[in-house]
């Protein structure tokens, strides 16, 4: 093989190389052919030549790939040279946070953050459950929300939140259990940092209690008081808002939702579903609700086994032991998990769904802002509230004999909670809700005389050691660099009725399967 033939084999046929490049390569070969160092010099020279040529052919004629050189025609290269590429977006705007070095100095809230560039347009529609925002606010569509209505909700409220010109102020009325109010307010402070200048002026009352508050039967002759809350049922009119645990639950050592979901995802990958314990698992405090005590009766005994493995979580012992055995990421070792409500709803639902084990969800009337997007048979397996032991056993037996279908329920439930209830969507839900709520206000909010300004500095700099650590762990680091998702339209009555029918259809299907097995 000649030197030129070898080069042609390396870079492609002679006809496939541009005339100018051919000439330069051939002249280089000729120049070094007589060299005593032979072929080695040819390749060294070619490497240098390619480098020279690549600096000259900057208009796109020469393209290097892993295996060949492809030369475009002059017309094609000129056409490509005129393509205008969008300039790269600048990095997201960081959120600076500092506490006074002198602890005796009261921290002050910094100026409102100014993004370095306008946010990019939204590229996605909000998850379907965002449509329930319109349902929560429907009671005030006709009348709007007056200041008197907001004032009437004071008797239910833990605190009052007012946002004016992008800055937040809080007036506290009562204490809350543990640090529910603290981390709910911390979440609102993070929202203002993530979307500076985007949160509209609002005035609202917020309850941090367990049970829904506003029953329509009590307000037949007047509009109901608007109260923001963590949960409701199909009857009550509370306005749903994310609970405190999305930013961490200090008292039980559960980190922020963003960190926990990542830990649970890694934990669920340690053991394949088929290799997990073929039972339904639950661990929690049974003393907070009678239904949990009833659930414990479904534990295995010497004479009966309902395929359930249930454990009493003593939080006092957990605290003393340094929370040994409470890591949520280590609890994805059973094929099935059980969710059961607490005093009312339980924040544990999202952690239980985050494993890719199908969830046996004991029917509950209580709803969270995101749980309204769940569908039985798709995201979970329904278990009746009464006589639950046999249905639990049937569900596990069914899943073990239909592993493909069972794993699909687990996968969809986990994907829903990990992706559609990501922390990014939590903030977007908060923003969309407050935006729609503000549209209903019939007055301009003003700062209450007894309110204090709310911001990261005013909260974290004065917090205790553990609280501060959890706050910094869940603190927003950058301003959102894109617009929030686009809100889908409100539900119409027929759509809501159809959703209700679909849920009821699968529940009845499961009941038929169970009765068929018993018969």
Task: Characterise the protein shown here.
The protein has 519 residues and is an alpha/beta fold. It has 3 domains: 79 residues, no CATH class; 182 residues, no CATH class; 189 residues, 3-Layer(aba) Sandwich (Rossmann fold), CATH 3.40.50. It has 17 helices and 13 strands. The strands form 3 sheets. It has a 6-stranded mixed beta sheet. A 5-stranded parallel beta sheet has the order 9-8-10-11-12, sandwiched between helices. A two-stranded antiparallel ribbon has the order 1-2. A hairpin with a 2-residue loop joins β3 and β4. α2 packs antiparallel against α3. The N terminus is likely disordered.
How is the topology of this model organized?
Layout (H helix, E strand, L loop, with lengths): L2 H9 L7 H15 L5 H18 L5 E3 L4 E3 L2 H8 L50 H6 L9 H6 L6 E6 L2 E6 L7 H15 L7 E5 L20 E3 L9 E2 L16 H12 L8 E8 L5 H7 L11 E5 L2 H6 L13 E6 L8 H7 L4 E4 L18 E3 L5 H13 L1 H18 L2 H18 L11 E3 L1 H5 L4 H10 L18 H26 L1
Parallel strand pairs: 5-6, 6-7, 8-9, 8-10, 10-11, 11-12
Antiparallel strand pairs: 1-2, 3-4, 3-5, 4-13
Helix pairs in contact: 2-3, 12-13
């Amino acid at each position: 093989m000649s030197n030129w033939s070898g080069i042609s084999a390396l870079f492609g046929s002679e006809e496939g190389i541009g005339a100018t490049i051919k000439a330069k390569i051939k002249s280089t070969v000729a120049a070094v052919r007589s060299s005593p160092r032979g072929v080695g010099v040819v390749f060294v020279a070619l490497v240098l030549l390619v480098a020279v040529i690549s600096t000259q052919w900057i208009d796109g004629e020469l393209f290097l790939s892993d295996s060949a050189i492809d030369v475009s025609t002059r017309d094609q290269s000129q056409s490509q040279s005129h393509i205008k590429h969008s300039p790269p977006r600048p990095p997201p705007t960081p959120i600076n946070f500092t506490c006074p070095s002198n602890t005796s100095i009261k921290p002050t809230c910094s100026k409102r953050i100014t993004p370095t560039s306008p946010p990019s347009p939204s590229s996605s529609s909000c998850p379907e459950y965002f449509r329930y925002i319109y349902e929560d606010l429907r009671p005030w569509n006709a009348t709007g929300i007056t200041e008197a209505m907001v004032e009437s909700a004071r008797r239910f409220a833990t605190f009052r939140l007012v946002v004016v010109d992008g800055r937040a102020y809080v007036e506290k009325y009562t204490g809350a259990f543990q640090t529910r109010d603290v981390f709910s307010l911390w979440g609102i402070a993070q929202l203002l940092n993530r979307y500076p200048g985007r949160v509209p002026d609002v005035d609202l009352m917020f309850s941090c209690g367990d049970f829904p508050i506003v029953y329509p039967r009590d307000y037949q002759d007047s509009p109901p008081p608007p109260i923001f809350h963590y949960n409701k049922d199909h009857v009550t009119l509370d306005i749903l808002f994310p609970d405190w645990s999305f930013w961490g639950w200090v008292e039980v050592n559960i980190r922020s939702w963003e960190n926990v979901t990542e830990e649970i995802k890694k934990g669920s990958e340690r053991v394949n579903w088929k290799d997990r314990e073929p039972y339904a698992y639950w661990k929690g405090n049974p003393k907070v609700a009678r239904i949990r005590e009833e659930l414990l009766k479904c534990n295995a005994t010497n004479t009966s086994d309902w395929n359930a493995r249930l454990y009493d979580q003593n939080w006092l012992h957990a605290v003393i032991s340094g929370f040994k055995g409470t890591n949520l990421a280590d609890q994805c070792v059973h094929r099935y998990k059980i969710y059961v409500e607490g005093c009312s709803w339980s924040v544990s639902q999202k952690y239980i769904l985050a494993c890719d084990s199908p969830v046996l969800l004991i029917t509950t009337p209580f709803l969270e802002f995101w749980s309204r997007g769940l569908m039985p048979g798709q995201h979970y397996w329904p278990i009746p509230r009464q006589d639950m032991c046999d249905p639990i056993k049937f569900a596990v037996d069914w899943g073990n004999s239909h592993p493909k279908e069972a794993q699909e329920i687990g996968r969809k439930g986990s994907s829903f909670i990990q992706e559609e209830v990501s922390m990014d969507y939590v903030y977007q839900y908060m923003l969309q809700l407050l935006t729609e709520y503000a549209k209903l206000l019939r007055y301009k909010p003003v700062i209450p005389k007894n309110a204090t300004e709310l911001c990261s500095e005013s909260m974290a700099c004065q917090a205790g050691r553990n609280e501060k650590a959890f706050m910094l762990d869940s603190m927003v680091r950058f301003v959102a660099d894109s617009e929030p998702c686009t809100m889908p339209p409100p539900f119409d009555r027929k759509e809501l009725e159809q959703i209700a029918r679909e849920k009821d259809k699968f529940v009845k299907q499961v009941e038929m399967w169970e009765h068929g097995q018993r018969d």
